[in-house]
TrEMBL record:
Domain spans labelled GOLD: 32-147
Keyword S-adenosyl-L-methionine annotated: no
Annotated InterPro entries: Emp24-like (IPR015720), GOLD_dom (IPR009038)
Pfam short name (any one): EMP24_GP25L
Keyword Membrane among UniProt keywords: yes
Family affiliation: Belongs to the EMP24/GP25L family.
Name the record gives this protein: GOLD domain-containing protein
Membrane topology recorded in Swiss-Prot or TrEMBL: Single-pass type I membrane protein
Domain of life: Eukaryota
SMART domains attached to this UniProt entry: EMP24_GP25L (SM01190)
Source species of the chain: Opuntia streptacantha
Leader peptide range in chain numbering: 1-22
Amino acid sequence: MIFGKSLAIFVLLGFLLGFSQSLRFDLQSGHTKCIAEDMKANAMTVGKYHVVNPNEGTPLPDTHKVTVRVTSAFGNNYHHADHVESGQFAFTAAEQGDYMACFWAAEHQPPVTVTIDFDWKTGVAAKDWGEVAKKGSIDVMELELKKLMDTVNSIHEEMFYLRDREEEMQALNRTTNSRMFWLSLLSLLVCLSVAGLQVWHLKTFFERKKLL
């Protein structure tokens, strides 16, 4: 029975702790590629990146080094590295919104393709659980329960965040619908006014010509 509960906890953690982006992508020289992550205020995030060496066992060519910048939705700079082959960043988001990690490869002739491995974790997934276990001297089961508790709290906060976003969107929809109503009414009044002026103009024209 205990084994069954333990297995259920591990399966649930494996499903819930997937709040991370781990990807490999190609970047052409002279181009920029950006990856966005929607983050809440006070959310913790960590990221690691490195350029894949096209020739294993030899130094990475200068043509394959990249410039990396991480910025917030308001343009605040959280990480910047120039002409590097690898790096990492970690910070706590000060503001809510889309955070952008942008990679740029300098232009070369002939053009080259740079392959980059990028791992970006936020929230519970960004926490160093090994360090937590080391500091607290706790066993594996207790550590997994702590992970589960943090994950549940994170999901709870995310639900409130999504509810607030939904209320904002509903308020925006109501405002937009109200503005569209008044705009439609104004357009109708303008059309009726123009039609009335045209009728009045035609009537006065025909009266002057004594056609009426």
